[in-house]
């Protein structure tokens, strides 16, 4: 258990990072910090492993002030996953993963076994990935290795600071699914920072909304949506959900990124590769990304009940064009 008691963070220039934060983070749960840019959510996370120190107040872990822990031992018990993975480029995958276990003086056989176990758990074949260098990994593979490295020494806590925000939407959605499944297996205490309301609702057992350093409300998705404590929470959630809902599959289709099913098959259940109609054109785009993480393409029903195909290649083309349009 991690507990904040009247925690404040004030920087030398007088800027306030955190204001009188009181919070309990329960064992085995995923607690998500979310809020506008500059709200203090990353500062709150960094105070847990003392990358930032409190100005006043107290943070306790297992009822012991974090200042009373030796800082190395405190951090060895906390896996840390960043937005930028920061794997050591001169080390291969297994060497990156073994850093903290070696510092904790684990035997080589135990480290090897743990490495294989975790690589399997995140869907990377140990025989294929152990000896690879970071430069040989895709963004999603590198982030999976970053997660494995954070878990390697079996820490009690996992701190994740916007770990997926630099990834493309398909990879990001796949990793969200992976983390969800992984947490169901290992039941670690996770503190996760994000600015994405969909991500917070999908991953969080408890979601904490922070505004200019103040903890405004904590609760489940239902607590926040059904009983917001004030207009800020109500508007923050509704704007996030509205923005998410506007990102529908129709956006992709309207830009021409799809494949028409031949007319002779329009009135039949067209299964070129045993794939049935799984989504509607008005569905959230994230639902499409989740399916395309596992499948090469999806059959979609449009507004006229016509069936079309969206492939992974269509998504990549759409994202490239969208990125060019945004500069």
Question: Overview of this structure, please?
Answer:
- The structure is a single chain.
- The protein is of the alpha/beta class and 327 residues long.
- Helix 8 crosses helix 13.
- The chain is globular, with a radius of gyration of 22 Å.
- The model is unreliable at 266-270 (pLDDT under 50).
- A hairpin with a 5-residue loop joins strand 1 and strand 2.
- It has helices at residues 41-48, 71-76, 93-97, 99-103, 108-121, 126-129, 139-151, 169-186, 197-203, 221-226, 231-246, 249-254, 285-292, 312-326; strands spanning 2-10, 16-25, 30-34, 56-61, 64-65, 78-81, 157-161, 189-194, 206-211, 214-219, 259-260, 277-280, 297-301, 307-311.
- The strands form three sheets. The protein has a six-stranded mixed β-sheet, with helices on both faces. A four-stranded antiparallel β-sheet has the order 2-1-4-5, with helices on one face. Strands 11-14-13-12 form a four-stranded mixed β-sheet.
- The relative contact order is 0.12.
Summarize the entry for a quick read.
With 327 residues, the protein is of the alpha/beta class. The protein has helices at residues 41-48, 71-76, 93-97, 99-103, 108-121, 126-129, 139-151, 169-186, 197-203, 221-226, 231-246, 249-254, 285-292, 312-326, and strands spanning 2-10, 16-25, 30-34, 56-61, 64-65, 78-81, 157-161, 189-194, 206-211, 214-219, 259-260, 277-280, 297-301, 307-311.
Summarize the SSE layout with pairings.
Layout: E1 2-10, E2 16-25, E3 30-34, H1 41-48, E4 56-61, E5 64-65, H2 71-76, E6 78-81, H3 93-97, H4 99-103, H5 108-121, H6 126-129, H7 139-151, E7 157-161, H8 169-186, E8 189-194, H9 197-203, E9 206-211, E10 214-219, H10 221-226, H11 231-246, H12 249-254, E11 259-260, E12 277-280, H13 285-292, E13 297-301, E14 307-311, H14 312-326
Parallel strand pairs: 3-8, 3-9, 6-7, 7-8, 12-13
Antiparallel strand pairs: 1-2, 1-4, 4-5, 9-10, 11-14, 13-14
Helix pairs in contact: 8-13
């Amino acid at each position: 258990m991690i507990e904040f008691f009247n925690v404040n963070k004030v920087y030398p220039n007088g800027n306030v990072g955190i204001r009188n934060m009181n919070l309990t983070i329960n064992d085995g749960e995923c607690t998500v910090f979310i809020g506008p840019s500059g709200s203090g959510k990353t500062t709150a996370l960094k105070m847990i492993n003392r990358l930032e120190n409190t100005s006043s107040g107290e943070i306790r872990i297992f009822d012991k002030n974090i200042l009373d822990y030796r800082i190395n031992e405190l951090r060895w018990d906390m896996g840390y996953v960043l937005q930028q993975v920061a794997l050591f480029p001169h080390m291969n995958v297994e060497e990156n993963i073994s850093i903290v276990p070696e510092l904790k003086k684990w035997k080589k056989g135990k480290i090897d076994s743990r490495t294989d176990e975790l690589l399997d758990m995140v869907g990377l074949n140990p025989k294929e990935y152990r000896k690879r260098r970071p430069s040989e990994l895709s963004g999603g593979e590198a982030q999976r290795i970053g997660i494995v490295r954070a878990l390697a020494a079996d820490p009690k806590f996992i701190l994740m600071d916007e770990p997926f925000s630099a990834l493309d939407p398909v990879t990001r959605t796949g990793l969200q699914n992976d983390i969800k499944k992984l947490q169901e297996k290992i039941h670690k205490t996770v503190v996760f920072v994000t600015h994405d309301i969909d991500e917070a609702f999908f991953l969080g057992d408890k979601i904490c909304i922070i505004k200019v350093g103040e903890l405004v409300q904590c609760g489940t998705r239902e607590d926040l949506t059904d009983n917001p404590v004030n207009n800020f929470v109500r508007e923050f959630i509704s704007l996030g959900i509205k923005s998410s809902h506007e990102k529908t599959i129709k956006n992709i289709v309207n830009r021409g990124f799809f494949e028409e099913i031949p007319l002779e098959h329009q009135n039949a259940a067209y299964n070129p590769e045993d794939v049935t109609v799984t989504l509607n054109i008005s569905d959230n785009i994230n639902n499409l990304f989740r399916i395309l993480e596992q499948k090469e393409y999806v059959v979609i029903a449009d507004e006229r009940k016509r069936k079309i195909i969206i492939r992974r290649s269509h998504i990549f083309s759409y994202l490239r064009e969208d990125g060019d349009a945004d500069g």
